[in-house]
Amino acid sequence: MPPEPAGAAPQGAAAAEVPAFDVLAELPSGTCVLEASAGTGKTWTIAALAARYVAAGVDLGSLMMVTFSRAASQELRTRIRQRLERTRAVLEAVVAQQTPADLDPVDELLTTGSADALATRLQRVSAALADFDSATIATTHEFCQRMLDSLGVLADTDPDATLVENLDQLTRQVCADSYLRLFGTRGGGPEDDAPRPPWLSFDDALAIGRAVVEAPSLTVVPEDDPDPQVSGRVAFAREVRAEVARRKRLMRLSTFDDMLSGLADTLEHPVHGEAARARLRERYPVVLVDEFQDTDPVQWRIVRQAFHGHSTLILIGDPKQAVYAFRGADVHSYLEAVVEAQATHTLSRNYRSDPSMVRAVMALFEGSALGDDRILVRAVEPGLPADRLRSHSGRYPTTPLRIRSVEGRPGRVGPVRQQVQQDLVRELGTLISSDAELCLDGAWRGVRASDVAILVRAHARAEELRLALAEAGIPAVVNGGRSVHASPAAEAWVTLLEALVDPHQRSVRAAAVTPLVGWTLNRLAAADDEELNELRRRLRSWGRLLEQQGVAALLEAVSGEQQLAARLLRLPGGERELTDLRHVAEGLHQVRTTSGLGTSALLAWLRERIQQAHADGDERSRRLETDAEAVQILTYHHSKGLQFPIVYLPSGWDRWLDEDTGAVLRLHTETGERVVDVGGPQGRGRAERFARARSEDSGDDLRLLYVALTRAQCQVVAWWGPSARNTPASALHRMLQRERTRPHPDPEYPPDRSPTALTGLPRRLVALETVADRGVAVRRDGDESRAGELRVRRFERQLDTQWRRTSYTALTAAAHGPAPVEAGVASEPLRPREDDEPDPATGTGTAAALRPDEPSSDGRLGRLSPLADLPGGTAFGSLVHTLLEYADPTADDLVGELTRLAAHELARLPAAGFGARQLAEALVPAVRTPLGPLADDLTLADFRPADRLPELDFELPLAGGTVPGPSATLADVADCLRRHLPAGDPLAGYPGRLAEPGLSEQTLRGFLTGSVDAVLRLPGGRPRHLVVDYKTNWLGPRDGTPLVLGHYTAPALAEAMMASHYPLQALLYCVALHRFLRWRLPGYRPEDHLGGVLYLFVRGMAGPETPRSEGVPCGVFSWRPPAALVVELSELLAEGPAAGSAREQEVPR
């Protein structure tokens, strides 16, 4: 390696040699810093240390491992479990006097020792795996939350506060209020009331407010500035920060920063702090913190106060990859920890990159200080034996670092960017069609598009490159990055929801040209009134579907009716668009399911998410539109932690440096304190602070270049171009020109040398190539000579046409006459409820022929039904179900409770002919009717809320669900009923009806969905649980005869039950309750805890004086199917007829 230029490496302590870490040496104690480099196996080292500590006798629950992100903590958890499982396997082999193969050095160490020592280690590792869930492997925020929970009363936090991801909405409100107060009644002058434009724009005010709220621990500067506008900006910042904190407390909101500062304050509390620190030290004698370069001063305060000097504290990080300052990370905390640590070691062997790739990066970087004299690029050794990229013909250059230089005099940046982009597309096409080969998994193979990653600085650049590659026939995807709510798909959903809320002419026209509807502008221009009216009707239909069945049903309808997938996939970028539309729909579905939002509220929620897209979390990052072989395009930040065989860097030369526009700055002062400068360009000391901030940004840029170059396993292809301002400011230019010692780039420094004039870099490691100015060769379908003969792929897989997601309604649809029924994937409860009575206009229904019993001694059977004057139909049934679901039957003013709910529902779904109070007064008698002997004659009003579970939703796997297995039919269910129902059972005749043609052959395979109206729990030593279902069926004649209670006697209800196939529904609900209790109720015994079924026909329930028929009040159908029947039916549905018949005599506990 050539000698470095004079002064390239820092002098003094910062440049001192740091010993390499030996994972086989004595386990660390005290505070130890492990300084990693890219590819040096941080996660492997942490897992190895965890296994060694466990084998040495440290309980796994006493180990704490903290990392930066959820994905990293999940990977760390997986790797530690795998390491422990591997350790257990090799110890078991050695204890059994076998010779395990493929031992790594840690295995060899742990399998060395006496037989007793090995047996002890095996016992410890086995115990750790058995209790692996007790391991604390968490993100920083999860760690803080657990610590606060474990400290209990010692932590001064509000346990009922709502944790929010960000305070952007609240900050905007406070900024608007403060801005209006400041400028709304004055002219805007900081010294007088003279009418003139405000000296602070609202956009600048909002930027100031966001900056100080997002960084609550930073000092606001400049302080005591004599300029009234500067001091006014500082005062505004402090006011917003204080007001946001005040409102946040009143609203009982909490952020991750509050969690961190709360724990830090607890540990430093003058009274409780020592007890809190002692409790944490006792709980965690060994602590490992990963990605420590991405910590901040508050997090370092917590770790230092709790563990430094008392527990074994191992801090693992790579300061060269500290690139998250914009998120609040502060590499100075890492550097401070290095000073305070008892020992510092390096991880000095790279296992990611080829040997020549490692040496090429070292040739460019070694000895450089990346933004701070203490952040050095130290030498690392290759960990792999040989390079893994080759070209048989030699026509493809395999030099590990290729610099492609655009020649010419410095000028405007735009043409240079275009030339770089064209050359990248051409080079990528050449690579994929060349004879270049990779050997990543032990066998050589041709290079594929998916072996290449293109890393860029900005998301916009990523999309430009994707389109350019697509035009050349090269598949590419933009991986991660922007929130899906910042995509055009989110705007399309907003436009559609606006039309669903209010389908007026403008919104209908706007929705028509969204990708969801798919009209072209030409079609819209030519559309006549009839076409627009038809679209308006369709939008109204979709709106009803959204309200009744949700976003998933809406998307299904739109996809089918508008041929969404087929239409979009024909277009360039269609996969991306379709993926985004579905992703946004999934978010809408989730929030509607969890929060019950209506269409207008969904629209408001989505608008807010679009506004806050810059702060959205990972779950809303855009998904890949395809998993096919494709080039990956990522930003530098998103690539961190990843690796790729070949990396392209088209923008390493391209960095714009702004002049001071007065933007908010975050920087460190000369004393090391981090501050936020809101004073604008004229603030006192601004020039010095701006220079410091620019220098820190330049350090970030150098570290980003290091991150980008070290993602490559085999090769990096980077571009350099001449531009007057962007090139000299870039990190790649500074490294190539050996300008590593300059504190920050000088934008006026002319790039008078191209990389081709450089000397000192070894040409076998760094190739300097000239970009030819020629067009791009478009490659449509790849190199046919390499692809081989094309053959038609045939679909030979057998589809399971019996598998479906079904419900009671769909199962019995064939028995309900010719009326059309929504088929297939419906779930219960349906809106409208299809298991209730038919609309009067559609026919009399199966129960219309029923008549009350012959005259009896109880004259009360002739009393009018309380609901006799109210209409029938599915809409009315849905309304009654909603009221009984949400009303509190124990309310003192039950009429008022029901009236309030009815008024709300009728306002949303108007019904003619009756009012809210009339309906409420008609339902009160049903709530106060005794439920018969099965319920100990209690009423609905007698059950406390704790003993009443409304709307028990379920989804039961049938015949194994997603796992293939033998399936049953309704004929098998009928056979099961025959075996268990005694002759005197009120439903003894039902098996024959269930076995009728059209029903008996219905296959039970897939999933059964539904919702039990209510489950009631009867008190007692062994509480019984009752399935309750509400029915509004009109069982009287349709000829104008008044509806009386005698129409709802026990025999009439039994016949109505069987005619409508409600016994099947009741049994399915009992199976759902059985499976629910089996998992949730300790000591569950079906024969004791399954109490039976109550079908409440509310039109026949008239209050405490309701007449009885066969000992049960009218309107109440009570049935207790044998527990053995429910258990066997559950097993029949789950495993098929063989399981059911084999256990027909058993009642498992």
Any chance you could write out the topology, listing elements then pairs?
Blueprint: E1 31-35, H1 42-55, E2 63-67, H2 70-95, H3 105-110, H4 115-130, E3 136-139, H5 140-151, E4 162-163, H6 168-183, H7 202-214, E5 219-221, H8 228-251, E6 253-254, H9 256-267, H10 273-283, E7 286-289, H11 297-307, E8 312-317, H12 331-340, E9 343-346, E10 349-350, H13 355-365, E11 381-382, E12 389-391, E13 401-405, H14 413-433, E14 436-438, E15 445-446, E16 452-456, H15 459-471, E17 476-478, H16 488-501, H17 505-512, H18 521-526, H19 529-549, H20 551-561, H21 564-569, H22 574-595, H23 599-611, E18 631-635, H24 636-639, E19 644-649, E20 665-668, E21 674-677, H25 686-709, E22 712-720, H26 726-729, H27 731-736, E23 766-770, H28 784-787, E24 804-806, H29 808-811, H30 874-886, H31 894-908, H32 916-927, E25 948-958, E26 968-969, H33 970-980, H34 990-994, E27 1003-1004, E28 1006-1018, E29 1024-1031, H35 1050-1059, H36 1062-1080, H37 1086-1089, E30 1090-1097, E31 1108-1109, E32 1112-1113, E33 1116-1119, H38 1123-1135, H39 1137-1142
Parallel strand pairs: 1-8, 1-9, 2-3, 2-7, 4-6, 5-21, 7-8, 10-11, 13-22, 13-23, 16-18, 16-19, 17-18, 19-22, 24-28, 29-30
Antiparallel strand pairs: 12-14, 14-15, 20-21, 25-28, 26-27, 28-29, 30-33, 31-32
Helix pairs in contact: 1-2, 2-4, 5-9, 6-7, 6-8, 7-8, 9-11, 16-17, 16-19, 16-22, 16-23, 17-19, 19-20, 30-31, 31-32, 33-38, 36-38
